[in-house]
Amino acid sequence: MATTSEAPETTQEEQGVLSLNEAFQTYVRQMPQDTKKAAQPEIAKFVRWMGSERLIDSIIPSEIGEYNDIFGAKTATRDATERLSAVKLFLTFLKKKEFIEVNLAQHLRLRKSRTSAAKGISIENQTRSVRLTQSGYNEMTKQLASLQEERVRIVEDIQRAAADGDVRENAPLEAAREAQGMTIGKIQELEATLKVAVIIDAKGQDNTRVHIGSKIELTEISTDKTVKYQLVEPNEANPLASKISIVSPVGSAILGHKLGDEVKVKTPRGQQVYKISKTS
Question: Where exactly are the structural domains of the chain?
Answer without folding.
Answer: 13-107, 134-198, 202-279
